Every structure is written in C-alpha cells, then in structure tokens.
Amino acid sequence: MLGAQKGKNNATIAELKVAYKGCFTCPSVEAERIPMLPENYIASQEVEEILEMVTHTPARLFMMTGEAGTGKTTDARMLAQILGLPYYVFTCGPGTDELELLASTVPNMGTKKRMLPQLPDFQDLQMDPASALYVLSGIYEDGISEGEAFHKLLSLAFEKGYESARKEKDFFLKESEIIKACRRPSVLEIQEPSMIEKPGTLTRLNSLFDDGAVTDLINGEKIRRDPNTIIIMTTNLDYVGCGNFNQSVLSRMSLIQPKQELTEEEMKQRITARTGYADENVLRFMISVVKKIHAYLKEEDLQDGVCGYRELENWVLTFRAIKDIRRAAQIAVLSKAAMDPEEQEHLMKTYIEPYYSKQE
Questions:
Q1: Which one, out of 111, 129, 297, 350, has a CA that is 20 to 30 A from the CA of 66?
Q2: Domain boundary among 203, 226, 258
C-alpha cells in the first residue's frame, strides 16, 4: 500500500522513482518523452504533495504559481520522470483561442503523393482501342474506333483526375499537445494560461477537466481525458499582461500551489547537479548576486527584465566556457536584468565589482 511514509522531505528523483514505481504505466511508444533530469535532483514539497495526491486520490488537476526561475516547469518534468510518464507542454499566449487549445488546421504541403490514373500509351490505343479504353472505363466496347476511344479516354482521364483532386484535402488536422496528452497516461504542463487575453477561452477545457466528460474536435471526433493524465498549470500572475482566471477553471484545480523562490542552498544543489560546477566560494558569490539583483528589480518595480535561477545557470555555464566571470555576468545576467545600458552598469558596480575590490 502507498502510505504517508513515501512522502520524504529532501528525497531525490532516484529515491522517489523507487518509492512510486508501478503507480502508473507508460506506453512504450511514448518512452522517449519521459524527461531525463539529473537523478540526484531534490524534489520540492510541491512535487511530493502531488505525488501523494495522485497515488491516494482521483485528483489530477493542479496549478503552480510563482515567478520565473522558481522551478515550476522543473517540477512538472520531475513529476513525469518519477512516475515514468511522457511529458507534454502547451504554452499559451495573448492570442491563444479556443480552437488552438484543442487542434489546428495546417496546410497540406504536398507530402502525400496524389494517385493519378494509369493511362494506356499510344501504341495500345492503335492496336486495341476497346482494351485501351477498358483500362479507365472498366467497360469493353467492342468495335469502337481509335478516334472515338481517344476522345473517351481524354474525358475519363479528366473526370478521374478532378475527382482525385477534389477528394485530396487542402488542410489536415493537427492535434494540440493537450489532446495528445489526454489520449494516454501522461503529465501535461499548460504554461502561462493567464496570458490569454480573451476572457473565458480556458473554459473550453472544462469539458476535459471534469471526470468522464467528453469534448469534440473540429472533425467531430470525441475526446475523453485519460483518467491518469495529470494536468499542471504553471503561471506567474504578477507578470505584465497576465490576467485573472475564470472561477470555473480555478474551482476545478485540486491544489493551487504558490512556488516560493529557491533558497541559496537549493540553487547551489541544483546548479551543481545541472552543470557539474562545484567551486563553493564562486557559486555562493554568484547566487548572492542573482538574489540581490532579483530583489532590487522587485523593489524598484523594474518590469523590463528578469533575474533568477535560469540566469544563474547561464552565468555558470558561460563562465566555464569563456573563463571571465565579469564578462559572463554582463552577457548572461545583466543583459537580461535590464534593457538600459546605464542600469546594467549600475548593477555591475553595485553587486559585482565590490566583490573584486575586496579580493584585491
């Protein structure tokens, strides 16, 4: 029996894979979609809560909110890896509409070869007009002349070619990642649904969120969400352009988990697992800089930039590549924290240069 002892603070992906082994079955054809994060990653509290919910209850719908870099997408991928399920992601934008959530029509670029009718050659027509005509008409007209057979062949060839072209689709239906994920047990992440501008768009998915409910594609096919498809919405409600959710969508979420900023220790563990870089002094300096710049951006309400875990990881990787920590900071962190060159220079002098002054 799956019990509370399975929830284990500071457990790694490897440990949780053992603890929850066999809870879900992954179709072998989807195995390539299972994420491959470092096995020594420490699972967050949110991941362990969802694991307990999906193994003990019918709950399959969750939402994580928080700033960029707090690990929302990593958590979704980690959950899929622990359970051995394929991972799908659908990213919303201001223009996302109801149809796009389910499927879209894509122009047929001619990848399908059109089958043209097989025509008899001129020699066949001269030797046996009736047999030559029979190839297309299926009727043997004994005694037909060469000229008459030729005219009938042209007419039949045109009719069959037209019919073939009429039946050839100019567009084909392309399912969204949401529909693909609903067809089989999987983990589906719906990113930034609060960015959708048109009110009520997301309610189109309510028929998939409800247990046993069915939704229709534009081709008439009825889709029912697999009962073991886990849906996680990830969003930051504080970003420019983000709106509020429809209450009918919120009410269907089993949990809404606010993600807190990663602690310095969590950042250090994650960056070491991801990059292999383990110089404790340099890492602590880099982490401190990233967190201070992040706090500065919030205090000054500067919304044209970002500074979080992703920028930290890029800084470490860039530094290892070019061996210049200040230049790496400029192009991997400061250039994303602010668009204004003067603001970037201020950040460099305030948060990075003092470290080197102390060393000299």
A1: 350
A2: 258
DSSP annotation of 32:
G
**What single letter denotes the amino acid at residue 190?**
I
Cβ atoms of 151 and 158 within 8 Å: the answer is no
Q: How far apart are CA 79 and CA 47, in angstroms?
A: 6
Q: 350 in a domain, yes or no?
A: yes
Q: Where does the chain show beta strands of DSSP type E?
A: 61-65, 87-91, 103-107, 171-175, 187-191, 214-216, 222-224, 230-235, 255-258
268 shares a domain with 350: yes
Query: Contact at 8 Å (CB) between 355 and 326?
Result: no
* Same domain, residue pair 90 and 203: yes
The answer, yes or no, to whether residue 3 has pLDDT greater than 50, is no
Structural domain harbouring 68 = 14-105+185-258
Which of 174-178, 285-289, 300-304 has the lowest average pLDDT?
300-304
Under 8 Å between Cβ of 187 and 88: yes
Q: How many domains does the chain have?
A: 3
**N- to C-terminal Cα distance for the chain?**
61
Contact 171, 111 (CB under 8 A): no
Inside any domain, residue 360: no
What pTM did the predictor assign? 0.72
Q: How many CA atoms lie within 13 A of 81 on its CB side?
A: 21
| In a domain? residue 5 | no
Whether residue 2 is predicted with pLDDT greater than 70 in this model: the reply is: no
248, 264 Cβ separation under 8 angstroms: no
Residues paired with residue 233 on neighbouring β-strands, in sequence order: 63, 190
Whether residues 32 and 96 share a domain: the answer is yes
- Both 66 and 139 in one domain: the answer is no
Contact indicator for 305, 336 with CB cutoff of 8 Å: yes
Nearest 10 degrees: Cα torsion 105, 111, 117, 119: 150
